[in-house]
Amino acid sequence: MGATFVQKVLARAAGRSEARVGEVLDVRPDRILSHDNTAAIIAKWRTLGQSRLPHPERLAITLDHAAPPPTVRHAQNHATIRAFVAEQGIRHFFEVGRGICHQVLSEEALVLPGDVILGADSHTVHFGWLGAFGAGVGRSEVAALWALGRIWLRVPPTIRFVLRGRLAPDVSAKDLALHIIGRFGADGGLYRAVEFGGDGLATLSLDDRMTLANMMAEFGVKNAYLPPDEHVFDWLAERLARREGISREAAYDRITARALYPDPTAEYEAVHVIRLDEVEPVVACPHTVDNVVPLSAVAGRRIHMAFLGTCTNGRLSDIATAAEIVRGKRIAPGVRFLVIPASSEVLQEALARGYIADLVAAGATIGTPGCGPCMGNHLGVLAPGEVCISSANRNFRGRMGTPEAEIYLASPAVVAASALAGVIARPSPEPVAVQQAAPSAHV
Ligand SMILES: CC(C)[C@H](C(=O)O)[C@@H](O)C(=O)O
Ligand code: SF4
Which residues form the Aconitase/3-isopropylmalate dehydratase large subunit alpha/beta/alpha domain (predicted)? Predict the structure, then answer.
């Protein structure tokens, strides 16, 4: 019998030739991620009697969740992390403004196909976009990982999604992810691995693949996996070559050498075929990500803020889409349109291509690359009674500040179109009529 991706990748990281589903393995990750929560991990690690990291090169730390720091407490937190980074000689450290951990580690080619990355962040499943095993773990686990370099992981069963066809032009990878979560439930993938396959996969851009893998955290999965192709290898090779000062060819060889693919005879818990051309624009309504309805069911709902950003949809293609929609127009009175690029690389490219100028001319506000108000830390939280349309991945009650606000999740195109219309809107050249009576939040 063949093996799934997760069986192969965990077996290799445990120094074994194979692994059965349900087996607990002693896994050695290639990379250990943490961010602003690193200070809490340092404290736990010290209580384990530790004072020197045995493998500082395996760590990667970003300052992104409250960056720049909004309070003295946050600033002190960052200062503690910087002191630790200097003390332990941690090379892979990314300052305020560099961007969100998942985006930055991808751009820096610090995670390669076939790698195992564990992070103190639930969206570490993101790295499935490039064919790595990424999983979130708790802060205590990270402290133990720093000390021991190993952790027990149970090999999960796998659900396979076979993608066929192509998404319609007004449908995005965000709609696809929400479609899956809405159909199978927010716990549909609990302690499961998901694998994507099928000829539809090749039609997804790299940004789309990142969005899809990232959103699988909201499906409850242990990890997500998309088989890496030459587009992924090329994207990484250029970056790895730059970072390591090696030739592109040498980087390419290193990247492809460890890529893993499931066997055609692998056993799956379930296989679902998704016809991409049947996926429609959707919105996740407050206050759960699986409260998914067709866009038309909530179109016309009055909004106060439109937020474009996060590790889910803060990339160049997302900003390009938004810029195209608002170019030469003005955002609706009474609406704030907040745009926060996922990284400094995204911001620089968006500046060079004129997208930021278009957005600012239309009345948008641009924030420092990072998480922004995604989890309610700073940079644009909501007031009681306010409604936000957001390109993020979570709409839990209280997520962006007050429990009395409502968050609707949608694609970047819908976020931008809604910023113009002042109501949840489908991107369209036609003017959108404001609905007088707002429909219930729980449509
Ligand atoms: C702060 C961090 C631990 C958290 C996570 O694990 O996902 C955050 O990134 C989030 O999106 O809620
Ligand atoms: S952007 Fe949001 S979801 Fe992503 S890591 Fe930051 S807080 Fe978490």
Answer: 22-422
